[in-house]
Amino acid sequence: MIDITSVLTILFVAAGIFFLLVGSIGIIRLPDFYSRTHATSKSDTLGMMLVIIGLIIYEGLTINGGKLFLVLLFILLANPVGAHALARAALNAGLKPIFPNNKKDKEES
Amino acid sequence: MKSLSAKSAVVSFIVLMGFWYLMSGFFDITHSIMGVISVGIVMAINYKLKRHSYFEGETDIINDLRLLYVPYYFGWLLVQIVISGVHVAKILLSPSLPIETSVLKFKVNFPNPHCKMILGNSITLTPGTLTVDIQGDEFIVHAISPASFEGIASDKMPQQVLKLFTNEMYPVVSDFEVLHSREELS
Amino acid sequence: MDQFFLYSAVILTAIIAVPAYRVVKGPTVFDRLVGTNAIATKTIVLICLIGYVFDRIGMFIDITLAYAILGFVGSLTIAKYFSSENVNVRYDD
Prior knowledge:
The complex is a heterotrimer of chains A (109), B (186) and C (93).
Chain A: H1 4-29, H2 33-59, H3 63-92, H4 103-108
Chain B: H1 6-24, H2 29-51, H3 61-64, H4 69-93, E1 102-108, H5 113-125, E2 129-135, E3 138-143, H6 150-153, H7 156-163, E4 173-179
Helix pairs in contact in B: 1-2, 5-7
Chain C: H1 2-17, H2 20-25, H3 29-53, H4 57-81
Helix pairs in contact in C: 1-3, 3-4
């Protein structure tokens, strides 16, 4: 038997896992630290949001659903703050971003 | 030191009580009384921490925030997050990897420091831009492609943040510049 | 549905193994930190899914909250620790 909750859950969780996969690929493919931070802070946030929204739909209006919503809110606040803290630390430590279109930078790296 | 309004105390009491009910899962009278006592202790401990002002010109955020606009802002932010996820995914999955990174520098003119915090988080969550540092009024932002910082250059996103706090609109971003090489970034 | 959550958890485990390459390869300290951060955030989702596989979500969701908060505080502390000009960001020079 197929009901609408299961279908929605499967759709959301599958979409979320796709975006988490994109985030992982980005960490491998991108050329420098600052662009890798883009991959973790955006694709991962979206993927985790979608998976947890799917689980909330599966759970319904219970205490555990509320706790899952709390996890969602926490991720939404904590992920960009963590990415910003790392990027700021890297800038203070003297790590310069790579500009791939600039020829001089390409030769250096 | 800054003064705290009654509205701020009421809002934090409601939020902490909601957190207590969510974590305990019981709604009877005994647990409610225990919850009120715990929330009272937490608020008493945090009173000094909340009154301390960490930055110059910091104000009581709950009093200044226009609470009606908060759900609207979160809805707008969610749409932006979805757009940004799809945008970054498109870049990452194309075989040629068409990235064209640049660093932006601009100054903002906001009534209080909370605006800067909200704008920094929103910039990180929206298409292809990442807040690297905030020094005083100056933002340093890393962008992955030129199409991604149009929202900041055209002053659209800072206006949304400003709308959370006041009714009158004025241009926020000034001294906007785009850096393309390492020498310019000293 | 249990089958679906089980397969999702297995696929997610494979995805989590990918950033480990960045953690091992480097080249700078911050690249390694981004790799560990990505692993930590994806593990939050994995613990939720495992909770549904074992039908014990009431217990696993509390573990998830504690794990999320610990991971966040940990990454902030490490970022603060490396945030100075004395850090030698590359291992190999």
